[in-house]
Each structure stands twice: as structure tokens, then as C-alpha cells.
Design goal:
- By secondary structure, the protein is α/β, with parallel strands linked by helices.
- It has one domain: Alpha-Beta Barrel (TIM Barrel), CATH 3.20.20.70.
- About 50% of the residues lie in helices and about 15% in strands.
- It contains ten helices and eight strands.
- Helix 6 crosses helix 7.
- The longest helix is centred in the middle third of the chain and has 17 residues.
């Protein structure tokens, strides 16, 4: 694999965002994240404070979503969500762009929307991953968004919410890596459910990946590492 299981784990944001997840299911998910020592847990906002409590003292970051899943919230609401997430212990925030505004070509609005969330998050010590929802966008729009995210100092550009009509594609990851500035990392989300898929998005330029199949991916990685000696 040319990469350790531990390093692969630190690529994964363990996703606990499905609307049907119960509190009990999220508690199990938090224990899985700790056992696997992933990069972060991205959890439904109302459970973030509990998430931060459980993860305290570990190297797994508590994270949540902003403007999720459609991005149509007002900027003021997104900023308020970010402030609440910071108060609840969030250290990584995944925000959805205003997709309709991007499709309308209102780039001034889109940039200001992202910039305000980035500013309040950075002021509070958190990083921001900006979700494009690429299945809705042209390549030209994706390129423009990469430039905007660089200008406002976002930390990551992210392919998808995982709840649109399509998820991460290798072509999109390569496009985003090519056009995002070096200081902006790329996160893949949506459809990465196997070790091979994780290795493929890594090779394409992603340094993080949202996943629900964390245990299966890492168990497969352990078996392959053992087989390769």
C-alpha cells in the first residue's frame, strides 16, 4: 500500500450525519472513531457538544456541518451555526456553499458567504472545509470556487455532501487539486466505501475523506498490510 494503516485512519472523517441515526447509534459511532483513531468525527450539530466531550483528550477532532445539506441558509444563519459549533467544542466545520448562487454566477455573494464563515471559524480556532456539491456544478464553477476558497483562506475544498445525486469522482478530485492553491487541501466525500477507493482518492490528491464505512476500510487495510508483510 505504501502507506500505514494509521496514516490511512488519519485521512478519515468518520461521518455520523444520517438523519435516522439515534443517539445510541451516534454513541457507537464515537467509540468506533476513538478505536480507529481517525482524523475527526463529523456529527449532526445537536450532538456536537457530546461528541467533543467523548473525544476530549484524544487526537480525534470533533466536527460538524454548516448550512447542511443544501447550502441555502442565509450567511447570518451560517455564521450563527459556526459560532454555536465553536461554543460546543467543534474544531473542524464543513460548510455548504450556496449552490443556487453559484449556479446563478453571483460570485460576490458566494465569496462573501464563505469568507464570513471562514473568518468566524478561524477566529475561534477551527478549520473550514468548503463543500461544493460537484454533481450540481460545471467544471468552470468548480475551478472558480477553488480560486475563491484560496482567496478567503479556507482550509479544504470538499467534493460533496454525500447527500446529492453524486459523490466524489477522481476527475473532480484531480480538478480541485490542480486549481486549489497549495495551502488548500482537498476532501473527498460520497461513495468512498472500500480501501481501494480510499487509496484512489489519495492518489488523486485528497488528504481527507468522509466515510461511514470506516471499520470495513481499515479492517481491509490491516489485512492487506499483514499480507504484504
Amino acid at each position: 500500500m505504501n502507506v500505514s494503516v494509521a496514516d490511512l485512519a488519519k485521512m478519515i472523517d468518520h461521518s455520523l450525519l444520517q438523519p435516522v441515526l439515534t443517539d445510541e447509534a451516534m454513541e457507537r459511532g464515537l467509540r468506533i472513531a476513538l478505536d480507529c483513531n481517525v482524523a475527526s468525527v463529523c456529527i449532526k450539530p445537536y450532538y456536537l457538544a457530546r461528541c467533543a466531550q467523548v473525544l476530549q483528550g484524544s487526537s480525534v477532532a470533533p466536527s460538524t456541518v454548516i448550512g447542511f445539506p443544501h447550502g441555502g441558509h442565509t450567511t447570518a444563519v451560517k455564521v450563527a451555526e459556526a459560532r454555536q459549533a465553536l461554543a460546543d467544542g467543534g474544531r473542524e466545520l464543513d460548510m455548504v456553499i450556496n449552490i443556487g448562487k453559484a449556479l446563478s454566477g453571483d460570485w460576490t455573494y458566494v465569496q462573501q458567504d464563505i469568507a464570513e464563515v471562514v473568518k468566524v471559524s478561524h477566529d475561534g480556532g477551527a478549520i473550514v472545509k468548503v463543500i461544493f456539491e460537484n454533481c450540481c456544478l460545471t467544471d468552470e464553477a468548480k475551478v472558480r470556487l477553488c480560486a475563491i476558497c484560496g482567496e478567503v483562506n479556507a482550509d479544504f475544498v470538499k467534493t460533496s455532501t454525500g447527500y446529492g445525486t453524486g459523490g466524489a469522482t477522481l476527475d473532480d478530485i484531480r480538478l480541485m487539486r490542480k486549481h486549489a492553491p497549495a495551502h488548500v487541501q482537498v476532501k473527498a466525500a460520497g461513495g468512498v466505501r472500500t480501501l481501494d477507493a480510499l487509496l484512489e482518492v489519495r492518489a488523486a490528491g485528497a488528504t481527507r475523506c468522509g466515510a461511514t464505512a470506516t471499520v470495513a476500510i481499515l479492517d481491509e487495510a490491516k489485512l492487506r498490510a499483514k499480507a504484504e508483510g
